[in-house]
C-alpha cells in the first residue's frame, strides 16, 4: 500500500492498461463501422452506431464477468482483475452512448418527452414476445451507472464492504436484463441462427466459467475441512484442533482452513505461524492466496496489507482482521477456531521452540 | 518453480513476468478474435432496405394539395420524381415524428402549392418531409373536393402484414420496421403520421397500404397495440395514384402470428 491513502493511484502499468482499453474500443468501433459500410452500405449511420456501441458494451460486459472466475483457475490473470474497474467504467460509457443514441433515434422529436415515450410507447408488459425490451436496457444501464459511480474505493469505505459488494453483485442482474433486452429486442427482427448462437455462446461462457470456478472452490474448501477433522492429541490444549503439518505451508505463504463457520488463513513466516480471518477487508479477497511481503500479509487481489501478529493494517491504515490462537506441537500445527476481536494481538506459535 | 513463486500486487509498477505474459496473451486473444467476431455480427444481419432520406438536400415540388383522407401532394410538374411520372402522389409528413396538416382556410383542398422539403422514397413510394409550403393558386374551400370516404365500388380486401409508419419505413430509419422499431413507429403514429401496412406475398414481393378509419378518420391510438407485430385486417382499398389507401374495418383487426400467414377467410 502506498504511504498516502490513495487506493486507486496511477502506475505506468495502469496507464498502459488504459491505453490498451481505449484502443480496443476504438478498433472495435472502427472495424464495425467499416465492415457495416462494406456489407450493408444502405444502413443508416445511426443504426450502425447504435449496433456498434450496443454490441461492444455487451461484449465488454462478458469479458468483465469472465475475468473473475478466470483468475480462480489461473492466478496469472490477476492483473486483469486488478484493473477491471476501468474496464467497467469504460463499458458503462459505451453502453451510455448506445442508450442516448437510442433515446434520440426512437423517442426524440415526438409528441411526448423521450423518457415518457421510452416507457409508454409499448405498454405490452404482460406479453413476453412483445415485451418493451428497451425498458430492460434502461434499468440495466441504471445499474451499470450506479456501479461506475461507486467504483472508487471512496465509496467502498463509505457504503461499507457489504453494501458495496451487494451493489456490485447486481451486475449479474444487469447481465440477465441485457440478455433479455437483446433476445426480446433485436433478435425478434434479426433472426439469424448465427446471431442467436453468439448470444447463447456468451451466456454459456459466462455461466460455465462461474460454475466451474465455484466447483473448484468447493473442492478446495472440502479438502481443508477434511484436514481439520484429524483427531487432536491429548497434549494439545482444550479448544484447539489439528490444522496441518507446518512443513505443508510454504515459507511466507498460507493455508486456508474452514473450521465450522470460520474461514481462516494460516501463515508461516520466519519461524512462526499465525492465523487471521481469511477474507480481506477491502473486497473479501482470499488472504490465504496472498503472501507475506515486508513482514505483512499482502492480499492477492489489490495488495491490502496486514500484520500477521495482530491482523492490523500498518499505520496510517485502519483495517483490522479477526485473529486466532495457534499452537505448534512437533511438526503439527493446531488452531483454536474461536476468533478474537478484530485487531487483537496474539503471539505467533514458534516453530523452532517446539522442535 | 519460478512461476509458482511469483506474486502479483496491483499497486506495484510492474507485474511479474509470468503474470505479464498471461495478461498479454489474454489481450492478444481478445484483440485477434475481434475481426472475426465483428465480421459475424455484421455479416449475419438480415440486410437493409434501399430506402433513401434526402436529409439536407432540399427539393421543390409543385402540385395540387389533397388534405384528406391523407395529406398528399399530387404532382402537376412534368418532371419525374424518383423515377415516378405524374400522375404521382407524394405523402406529406412533418418534421421529426410528426404528421403534416394544413389549416383548410389557409390552404383549401385542391389548391396548387409549391412544397419545399426533403424526399423520402423506397420501392416507388414517395414521401416528403415538408419544410415550407407556399400557395400558388388558391381554391375556395367549397370548390375543393377531397373525399374522406372510399369511392363506391372500391375493392374489399383481407390483408396480413405488419404495421409501421411510412416516414421511417421509406427511408428515415433503416430498418424502419419490426420489434426494434416498434416504439418509434408508435411515436410517429401518435404524432399524426398515418399508419403503413406492409404486406408480403408468396413470391416475397412487398406491397404497401396507408391505413385510415372507415370514414377516413385517424386510426391512432386504436392501432397502438398492433404496431410492430403481425396483424390481419379487412377494408376497402382505393388507389391514390401510386399509393393505396385502405379504409380499415376496425372490427376486423386481429393480431396474428407472423409465421402463420395462412390466409383464411377473414372478411364478412
Ligand atoms: C436506455 C437504455 C437503452 C435503450 C433505450 C436501448 C435500446 C435499444 C434498442 C432500441 C435496440 C435495437 C436497436 C436496433 O435496431 O438495432 C437495442 C439493441 C441492443 N442493445 Fe440496447 N438499449 C439500452 C441499453 C443497453 C445497454 C446498457 C446495453 C449493454 C451494453 C445494451 C445492449 C444492446 C445490444 C447488445 C443490442 C443489440 C444490438 C443492436 O441492435 O444495437 N443496450 N437497444
Ligand atoms: S480484496 Fe482488495 S486488497 Fe484484498
Briefly, what is this?
The complex is a heterodimer of chains A (355) and B (268). Chain A has helices at residues 12-39, 45-73, 78-82, 84-107, 114-120, 133-149, 153-159, 161-169, 171-183, 193-229, 351-354; strands spanning 241-245, 254-259, 262-269, 272-277, 291-293, 296-298, 305-306, 323-329, 332-340, 349-350.
Folded structure, characterized:
The complex is a heterodimer of chains A (355) and B (268). Chain A has 355 residues and is α+β, with helices and mostly antiparallel strands. Chain A has two domains: 12-218; 241-350, Rieske Iron-sulfur Protein (3-layer Sandwich). Chain A has helices spanning 12-39, 45-73, 78-82, 84-107, 114-120, 133-149, 153-159, 161-169, 171-183, 193-229, 351-354; strands at residues 241-245, 254-259, 262-269, 272-277, 291-293, 296-298, 305-306, 323-329, 332-340, 349-350. In chain A, the strands form two sheets. In chain A, strands 1, 2, 3, 4, 8, 9 and 10 form a seven-stranded antiparallel sheet that branches. Chain A has a three-stranded antiparallel sheet with strand order 5-6-7, with no helix packed on it. In chain A, a hairpin with a 2-residue loop joins β8 and β9. The relative contact order of chain A is 0.08. The model of chain A is unreliable at 1-8 (pLDDT under 50). Chain B is an alpha+beta fold. Chain B has two domains: 52-137, OB fold (Dihydrolipoamide Acetyltransferase, E2P) (Beta Barrel); 155-260, OB fold (Dihydrolipoamide Acetyltransferase, E2P) (Beta Barrel), CATH 2.40.50. Chain B contains four helices and ten strands. In chain B, the strands form two sheets. Chain B has a five-stranded mixed barrel with strand order 1-2-3-5-4. Chain B has a five-stranded mixed beta barrel with strand order 6-7-8-10-9. In chain B, β1 (52-66) and β2 (72-75) form a beta hairpin. The longest helix of chain B has 27 residues, at 17-43. The mean pLDDT of chain B is 89. Bound molecules: protoporphyrin IX containing FE and FE2/S2 (inorganic) cluster.
Amino acid at each position: 500500500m502506498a504511504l498516502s491513502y490513495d487506493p486507486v493511484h496511477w502506475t505506468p502499468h495502469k496507464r498502459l492498461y488504459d491505453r490498451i482499453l481505449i484502443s480496443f474500443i476504438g478498433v472495435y468501433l472502427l472495424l464495425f463501422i467499416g465492415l457495416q459500410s462494406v456489407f450493408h452500405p444502405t444502413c443508416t449511420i445511426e443504426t450502425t452506431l447504435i449496433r456498434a456501441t450496443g454490441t461492444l458494451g455487451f461484449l465488454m460486459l462478458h469479458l468483465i464477468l469472465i475475468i473473475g472466475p478466470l483468475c480462480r483457475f489461473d492466478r496469472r490473470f490477476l492483473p486483469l482483475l486488478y484493473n477491471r474497474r476501468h474496464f467497467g467504467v469504460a463499458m458503462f460509457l459505451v453502453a451510455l452512448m448506445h442508450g442516448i443514441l437510442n433515446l434520440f433515434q426512437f423517442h426524440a422529436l415526438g409528441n411526448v418527452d423521450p423518457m415518457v415515450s421510452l416507457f409508454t410507447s409499448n405498454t405490452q408488459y404482460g406479453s413476453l414476445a412483445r415485451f418493451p425490451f428497451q425498458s430492460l436496457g434502461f434499468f440495466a444501464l441504471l445499474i451499470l451507472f450506479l456501479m461506475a459511480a461507486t467504483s472508487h474505493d471512496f465509496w467502498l469505505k463509505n457504503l461499507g464492504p457489504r453494501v458495496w459488494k451487494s451493489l456490485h453483485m447486481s451486475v449479474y442482474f444487469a447481465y440477465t436484463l441485457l440478455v433479455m433486452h437483446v433476445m426480446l429486442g433485436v433478435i425478434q427482427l434479426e433472426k439469424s441462427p448465427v446471431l442467436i448462437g453468439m448470444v447463447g455462446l456468451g451466456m454459456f461462457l459466462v455461466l460455465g466459467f462461474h460454475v466451474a470456478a465455484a466447483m473448484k472452490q468447493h473442492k478446495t474448501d472440502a479438502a481443508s475441512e477434511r484436514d481439520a477433522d484429524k483427531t487432536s492429541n491429548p497434549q494439545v490444549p482444550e479448544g484447539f484442533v489439528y490444522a496441518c503439518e507446518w512443513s505443508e505451508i510454504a515459507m511466507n505463504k498460507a493455508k486456508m482452513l474452514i473450521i465450522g463457520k470460520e474461514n481462516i488463513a494460516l501463515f508461516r513466516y520466519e519461524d512462526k505461524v499465525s492465523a487471521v480471518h481469511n477474507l480481506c477487508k477491502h473486497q473479501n479477497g482470499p488472504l490465504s492466496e496472498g503472501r507475506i511481503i515486508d513482514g505483512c500479509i499482502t492480499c492477492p487481489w489489490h495488495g491490502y496489507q496486514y500484520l500477521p501478529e495482530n491482523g492490523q493494517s500498518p499505520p496510517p491504515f485502519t483495517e483490522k482482521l479477526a485473529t486466532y490462537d495457534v499452537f505448534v506441537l512437533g511438526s503439527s500445527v493446531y488452531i483454536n477456531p474461536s476468533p478474537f476481536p478484530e485487531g487483537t494481538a496474539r503471539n505467533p506459535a514458534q516453530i523452532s521452540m517446539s522442535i | 518453480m519460478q512461476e509458482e513463486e511469483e506474486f502479483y500486487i496491483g499497486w506495484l509498477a510492474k507485474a511479474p513476468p509470468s503474470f505479464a505474459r498471461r495478461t498479454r496473451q489474454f489481450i492478444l486473444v481478445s484483440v485477434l478474435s475481434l475481426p472475426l467476431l465483428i465480421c459475424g455480427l455484421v455479416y449475419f444481419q438480415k440486410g437493409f432496405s434501399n430506402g433513401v432520406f434526402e436529409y439536407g438536400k432540399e427539393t421543390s415540388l409543385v402540385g395540387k394539395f389533397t388534405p384528406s383522407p391523407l395529406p398528399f401532394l399530387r404532382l402537376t410538374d412534368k418532371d419525374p420524381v424518383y423515377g415516378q411520372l405524374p400522375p404521382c402522389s407524394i405523402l406529406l409528413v412533418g418534421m421529426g415524428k410528426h404528421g403534416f396538416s394544413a389549416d383548410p382556410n389557409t390552404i383549401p383542398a385542391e389548391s396548387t402549392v409549391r412544397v419545399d422539403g426533403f424526399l423520402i422514397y423506397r420501392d416507388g413510394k414517395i414521401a416528403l418531409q415538408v419544410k415550407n409550403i407556399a400557395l400558388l393558386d388558391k381554391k375556395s374551400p367549397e370548390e375543393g373536393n377531397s373525399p374522406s370516404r372510399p369511392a363506391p365500388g372500391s375493392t374489399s380486401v383481407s390483408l396480413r402484414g405488419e404495421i409501421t409508419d411510412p416516414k421511417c419505413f421509406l427511408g428515415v430509419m433503416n430498418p424502419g420496421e419490426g420489434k426494434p422499431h416498434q416504439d418509434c413507429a408508435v411515436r410517429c403514429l401518435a404524432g399524426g403520421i398515418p399508419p403503413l401496412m406492409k404486406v408480403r406475398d408468396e413470391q416475397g414481393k412487398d406491397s404497401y397500404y396507408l391505413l385510415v378509419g372507415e370514414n377516413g378518420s385517424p386510426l391512432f391510438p386504436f392501432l397502438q397495440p398492433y404496431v410492430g407485430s403481425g396483424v390481419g385486417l379487412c377494408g376497402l382499398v382505393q388507389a391514390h395514384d401510386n399509393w393505396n389507401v385502405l379504409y380499415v374495418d376496425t372490427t376486423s383487426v386481429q393480431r396474428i402470428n407472423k409465421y402463420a400467414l395462412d390466409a383464411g377467410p377473414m372478411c364478412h
